[in-house]
Every structure is written in C-alpha cells, then in structure tokens.
Amino acid sequence: MSLTLTLRKPPPARVLAAPLDPDGLRGLDAGAVGALELRCGGEAVPVGDLFEVSGSAAEDGTLVLIGDLRRFDGVGAGMASGTLVVHGNVGSWAGAEMSGGVLQIFGDAGARLGAAYPGARAGMTGGEIVVSGDAGEEAGAGMRRGLVALGGRAGAGAGLRILAGTVIALGGIGEEAGLGNKRGSLVSGRPVEPLPAYAFAARLQPPALRMQLLRLRALGLTVDERFLRGVWARWSGDRTELTRGELLLFDGENGSR
C-alpha cells in the first residue's frame, strides 16, 4: 500500500511542502511521517497535524496526497525520483527544480510550475510533470530538460528563458510564451499570437510530439485523438537567442485549417 496523506482541513497559513518528497520518505512508516515537520507561516507544524497519514512508503517510491492543497507551495519541488500523485489543486512552485521522477496533479497548479527559484539559473533538469487542469504564470521557466504538460491552459510567460525541455498546454498557452527560448519546445493546443521574435517555419505532424502525447495518456492525461492525428504549425525562435527553439500550435485535423 502506498503512503497516503489526506488533508484534514485547510492550513491557517501557507505551507512549504517540498519535504514531502517520495524518495526522501522511502522506508518511513505512518508514525514517522506524521512526526515530520513542515513550515506553516512562521511555525513548524507536524505533518500529522495537517494530514491523516496512512500506509507506508512503497519500495517504488510512490506518495499520494489528497485534498485541496492550494495553500501548499513547492509540492514535488526538487524531486529526483519516485512518483508523487496529487488528487486536488496545488500552490506555487510545484515541481520547481525537479531533476527526475513523476509528479501527477489531478487538479490545477499555481504559478512557476517546474520553474527555477528566484536567483537560480536553472529550473527543471529532468522528470515529468503532468497536470490535468490549468497552471499559473511562468510554467517551465528556466527549464533545462524534462516535460511539463497541462490538460488545460498555461498562464502568461510559459517557458520563460527555457534552455531545453518541453512545455505542453493542450488548453492553450498564455501570452509571451517562450520569451528568451534557446532550444526548448512549447506546444499549444489552441491558437496563440507568437512573439515577434518567432518566425513561421512549417506545418507538420511531429513524430516526437505524438510519442510525448501517448506517454501523457499513459500517465493519466486526457489527450484528444485530434491532437494525435492533426497538423501543427511550427514557429522557430527566439531570434534574440539561438533561434533553435520552437513553438508548435495545433493547426487542425488531417491538414484541415
């Protein structure tokens, strides 16, 4: 049985949730996990005061969080391995600076999903983040590797200064997407006006994107069949950088526009 933390009630202040790391909790029983402390506002609060803890950390490194965690920041931040499954919304900085593992969020995410912390040069360097709903601004900012995928919409500034990696938003991507993009890929399932630093390149059916979308299906994301068989418009940029990044915009099924 996987280790499961079920929220008792909304906390009185914002909580720094990064210590809830599936790899870091590996081998701990419910009592040991409940005794760990999280920063809640200006206080240290035992996990057991915030969550009902059941099960024990599985050998495969799976941790399940249940409840509305919008006041919990940094869920899955710094993950290097294992699987963290969240049934509910999460706050800002979810998956920030991940280097490996899988973070599955069945809900919405706040700002800076999978991004770099202030003053840091790099955000995600590996791993996969899958969100069934929407995310706030600057999802995937500073990414070097990895995958951030949304079933819903990404806020403004997705892929800000992305070096490499992929940000997919099937519900559409916000304004100023891919500003400062060096070699990253941004994918929007809805039309968007590219930044002036991007130039139209081609219309195509990218095999690599199809493989990524099938992988997202396997991770529980709803992917409409039209995205798998449709045509995408490729824009290259940012021309103020290396012009080796890309923005892929869904352009219709079977070549229709």
Can you summarize this structure?
The protein has 257 residues and is mainly β.
**Strand order in space, largest sheet:** 5-1-6-8-9-10-11-12-13-16-15-14
Euclidean distance between termini CA atoms: 49 Å
Q: Characterize the biggest β-sheet.
A: 12 strands, mixed
Count of distinct structural domains: 2
Shape: elongated
| Helix-strand pattern | EEHEEHEEEEEEEEEEHHEE
Radius of gyration: 18 Å
Helix fraction by DSSP (H/I, runs of at least 4): 10-25%
Low-confidence stretches: none
Class based on secondary structure composition and strand pairing: mainly beta
Task: Return the average pLDDT rounded to an integer.
Answer: 94
Strand content: 25-35%
Number of strands: 16
Query: Helical element count?
Result: 4
Question: What does this protein structure show overall?
Answer:
The protein folds into 2 domains: 1-59, no CATH class; 74-253. The chain has helices at 30-35, 47-50, 207-218, 225-229; strands at residues 3-7, 15-16, 37-40, 43-46, 51-54, 62-66, 72-73, 83-87, 102-106, 125-131, 145-150, 166-169, 185-188, 199-204, 230-237, 245-253. The strands form 2 sheets. A 12-stranded mixed sheet has the order 5-1-6-8-9-10-11-12-13-16-15-14. It has a 4-stranded mixed sheet with strand order 4-3-2-7. Strand 15 and strand 16 form a beta hairpin. The chain is mainly β and 257 residues long. The radius of gyration is 18 Å and the shape is elongated. The mean pLDDT is 94.
